[in-house]
Amino acid sequence: MPRGVVPRQPAKTGRQEGARSKARGATGVPARPARGKTLSAKQPSRSVGDRYNPLAPGRIAEILKRLDQLYPNVTCALTHRSAWELLVATILSAQSTDANVNRVTPELFRKYPTVQDFAALTPEQLQPDVRSTGFFRNKSKSVVGAARKIVADFGGEVPAEMEELLTLPGVARKTANVVLGTWFGKADGVVVDTHVTRISRRLELTRNADAPKIEQDLMRVIPQAKWILFAHQIIWHGRKLCIARRPKCAECPLENLCHAADKTWSTVEIHKNAKP
Description:
Strand content: under 5%
Shape: elongated
Helix content: 40-55%
CATH architecture of the domain at 54-74 and 187-276: Orthogonal Bundle
CATH superfamily of the domain at 54-74 and 187-276: Helix-hairpin-Helix base-excision DNA repair enzymes (C-terminal)
Number of helices: 12
Order of helices and strands: HHHHHHHHHHHH
Low-confidence stretches: 1-8, 11-49
Radius of gyration: 22 Å
CATH topology of the domain at 54-74 and 187-276: Endonuclease Iii, domain 2
Mean pLDDT: 87
Structural class: mainly alpha
Number of strands: 0
CATH class of the domain at 54-74 and 187-276: Mainly Alpha
């Protein structure tokens, strides 16, 4: 039997003594494991001489498999009953939380039940109803402007095409992808919010920092059939485990596939360029 010491299992909090220093060292350069120790029995094997490729099809497939096991049927957390309600909720969710938006929208849609009701408002009239979501002046202007254009140009129905959605005030690709994917079931792209941005960079699926480039990178490596679900899974993962300020790495089933520089505990080599 080969000699060696099996690594101690992490605490549930992710705060294992010395985990951070062992993973990175004082200068941020990945430290070598202690003599006679192994990093992880679960670490995916590579042939000797193979170079690490974060976009290798096998690694991508394993990430998707584990996400499916963690979050098999997740969808958008914004409460809605129509494409219009989803569009409004998504506009309001910018720089806010879904939970906060879900507290605002029931009364908002009771007060203004149809897109025509919103179109009849001025932005100033809408502002008190959406103030708690933040940036309420711009959001009011976007919601009222979108309502007016939908009534004037699309017969009162939210369009189901990317090009048409992008003509609406306040609608960029993220909002359009949410509506197309969640309501219409159309995979025209990948939703890129703050969670998707952070975690895609942590998992080395992209090195870009701006949403349009990140979306293009993800569309190249994630199968189109998974675009809608993948985005929802990553968003839920960002809320449950891969939290921005202190990710719960010790509890994460993706841990040994992740080499992020800000990990709180690691069984694999840390990559200094894998930054959120």
